[in-house]
Amino acid sequence: MPRRLLCAIAMTMFCVMARATTSGDDDGAYAVLSEADVVKGFDDVRFERLIRDAQAMSLSPHDRAWLDFMRGWRATWEGNYETGRPLLESVADGAADPVLRFRATATLINLLGVGHRYEQAYLRLARLQEMMPSIRDRRARFAGQAEASQLLSSAGQFDQAESYALDMMRDPPPGETLCKGAQHLLRARRENGHLDALESLYQTSIASCTRPDDAVFAQTMHADMAAFYIARGRPAEAVTLLTANLQALSALKYAILTSEFEGLLARAYLNLGDLAHARRSALAALAVGVPGEFTDARRAAFEVLYKVEQRLNHSDAALAYHEQFMAADKAYLDDISARSLAFQVVDQQLRARKTEVEALNRQNEILRLTGALANKEVETGRLYIFVLLVCLALIVWIVLWLRRSQLRFMKLARRDGLTGICNREHFVEQAGRVLAYGARSDRGACLILFDLDHFKAVNDTYGHAVGDETLKRAVDVCGRALHACDVFGRLGGEEFAVLLPDCNPAQARARAEQLRLSIAATAATPSIPHLHVTASFGVASTLQCGFELHRLLVVADAALYRAKRAGRNCVTLGDTADIPDSPYLMGEIRG
């Protein structure tokens, strides 16, 4: 099931989980919060009124955590992840009530998955799995199992995903049916290639989807069945199934699932040779899809459009759609790879941590045995000590081997460890790709280099911790002003680079000015609100420098120096006079 869809459904599943998890709370506050927990996701106006009423009350620590959870839940539901995440994290990490912590953790998993922060999502999943055996609330466990199944399936861990789905089907809480568990099971088996036939179980499960929040699960199972028919060379059955449910799906007004339906219809019509309907469904899939999402429906739509135009001998249109298909296919596959890599990194970290704990326990046992052996005869004692030392050496070797394996995975990471943006090597790689594409498509691009003014003084005066926070705050401010297609990286120290595709010098200067004003207007760190930093900017354009990254870096770097000499906190455009005769070496970029 698409992750945004599962985010919405999983959060809706929580709406009936209001319960008294502590005693002694103020009756009025408890009643308001209980009512709000029940109506969230169904009655927005009433929910907002109840939350305002609760905020005006004097709340116990438990009720305050409960309120923060619902505020974070609501922000996540609305797509305001930056607001919802800290609220949910405060509850997941600090609430006294374990059920409340469990619910917040489950919602966080959805939030992080939708935001493509897979490594953090899998770390939260590991914590959810640790908590699950101690959770006696059946509805909370049911929702947690759903989260575990869908996230593991997205990481390619289909056996574990199926196991959680089967648990949901074996023991659904009161009011629930086979519907949700069967949907997770069907999707995991289909994506794993283990769906050889459509068992009657799935039709029975669809018939049991009678709750208001079950409709999306039923339609998702229809989509999986249609995909099964298409894969088995039965496109006519897929068309019949999808068209019969398309109107009911439209009433749900859920864009991602509608896009998946239309994408499947486009593939089925293409297989039947109905080019007109294939084109119409493919265009509909693109029209209703969520921009920026890495979905198979988007990839399928461009592929169908490309093949339709190719069959109609419209070579120009076919070429254009083929380029879009390749870009969508790459984005989709890159996202799958990112999920798999993040899972393996987290899995390796957890294994290493477990091994370290076991090693410490074994070392303690070794010390105990060594003390006991001191009373034995000298020769026997020496032999035992030798055996124990060999065991200890083996344990240390295993720990070191796992640590080296962990480091190998960590080296695969392409993000700057402090700021989370592209590191130097990844920026150069990504910028090179963007410029190569710009050169092929004759679309200009601009490079912005900037660094923080007097940053050394901040480190010397306030310490490196404040300096690090200043860098992170500056990156956060800039990140909010940049577009999804912009390439943002840290070259080293306090120096950063932004590559703006499809951009002219005037636009680049305006964008740089926006970044400069944003940095200057933001406190460097919440702990020192009077501390403000500024930045100097240098801008280079492919119109003057061509599409070679090293030439853009030379010109932008020279412009940055001129901005420094002009008094800092300003933007300067580079020109061709800044390009030296000798080639620019990437290693000479200022750190």
UniProtKB/TrEMBL annotation:
UniProt keyword annotations, A-Z: Membrane, Signal, Transmembrane, Transmembrane helix
Record field: catalytic activity: 2 GTP = 3',3'-c-di-GMP + 2 diphosphate
N-terminal signal peptide: 1-20
EC number: 2.7.7.65
Protein name listed in UniProt: diguanylate cyclase
Keyword hit for Ribosomal protein: no
Residue ranges occupied by any GGDEF domain in the UniProt entry: 443-576
CDD domains, A to Z: GGDEF
Residue ranges of the TM segments: 383-402
Cited PANTHER family: DIGUANYLATE CYCLASE DGCM-RELATED, REGULATORY COMPONENTS OF SENSORY TRANSDUCTION SYSTEM
Pfam families per UniProt: GGDEF (PF00990)
PROSITE patterns: GGDEF
Highest taxon above the source species: Bacteria
